[in-house]
Amino acid sequence: MMALLAREPGMEWLQLGLAGQAAPFSHRTRGAACWTEVVAQPGGCGERGAAVAGMEFSCPQKHSLGPWPLKTLSLLECSGDSRLWQAYLEGLKKFLVFRKSMGMPAAWPIPVEQIVGFLAVESLHSSSKTLMYVAALSYLSKLTGNPNPLEDPITRCMVIGLKRRAGILRDKYLPVTIEVLRSLLGALESVCITPYECMLFRAIFTVAFFGALRIGEMVAKHHDVVQPELLYLSDLQLMERRVVFFLRNSPVGQERHVISLGLSGEPWVCPVLALRSYLTVRSQLEGPLFVHSDNRTVTKREFLRVLRWALRLLGLSPEQYGVHSFWLGTAVTTVRCGYPGEDVTRLARWPCVIPERS
Q1: CA angle 151, 156, 159 (to 5 degrees)
Q2: Which residues pair with 262 in a beta bridge?
Q3: Are the C-beta atoms of residues 18 and 3 closer than 8 Å to each other?
Q4: N or C: which terminal CB in the chain sees fewer CB atoms within 10 Å?
Q5: In whole angstroms, what is the distance from residue 181 CA to residue 329 CA?
Q6: CA atoms of 64 and 67, how far apart (whole Å)
Q7: From the CA atom positions of the chain, what is the Rg in Å?
Q8: Burial of 27 by CB count in 10 Å (0-12 exposed, 13-18 middle, 19+ buried)?
Q9: The pTM is what?
Q10: Alpha-carbon distance 321 to 334, whole Å?
Q11: In the chain, which stretches have pLDDT less than 50?
Q12: CA 272, 274, 279: angle at the middle one, nearest 5?
């Protein structure tokens, strides 16, 4: 991704950094002082041990990525969910191809007419993918010190239209808020056939909400298909007042993403207590974390069936809730509680759309 950005206008500092050449940033005034930090390679000494590839540029003038922008950008590219960064890379490539095919000039900040045209063309294929692509352009623009291209009023209206079409806005799929969660847990005793199933889905619902977990991290698509990101019993560390999950979808060679949940002051919705109760009756055999009493993995279809039965029992419309309603409810609840946007996106592991406070 950095190699693509380095070819864009105004990104000369990135191109120079990748090439390992000591030169001032493009936005720096002539004559501004600069210095380099040379990182020695193992086994080397003196000048022969200095690696040009390890050279990093620092500037006393303010940069949006700090005094070492290339190093910061490299770490950001290696952080988070690898699938998200792959989607962002795909979005950047799609935009560059669109711009070239339309004969538009290369320019950063991205002109409004280019974003509007890109939205119009891509939305003919997939609304959800188009939203991901423009989120990539927004995120990369802010990373490189450029204005957010989605702040234009026309662009914002187009994005809202795409969200409605993709079913992202709350008028189609409602979030499971903390209030709804309390009611759902109360309905489980009437929905589930056995005490084991009741403890199983109580653990799933509370962990889904407080951990902001994806559906694919909790349950399987089918009984005979176990996806790589599915949590296993060995991915869980249960302590006296805390439970820690080590997610499986971290990029190769990086530390696994960790979610830590503490003991809640409200025992009825506490994920630690719910998990502890479930694990006392669950088989100790290694395998997916959430399984039935016969060790069959809970599937997405079963998850939705129990959720919809509970919603119907509460007098709520099952059609207004989906597999991502717990995740969305976590984001909405944290925003309502006044948490900063950075904390919300970090919790949700999704640096793009933040629900508005209401």
Answers
A1: 130
A2: 242
A3: yes
A4: C
A5: 9
A6: 9
A7: 24
A8: middle
A9: 0.53
A10: 19
A11: 21-62, 169-171, 250-253, 351-358
A12: 95
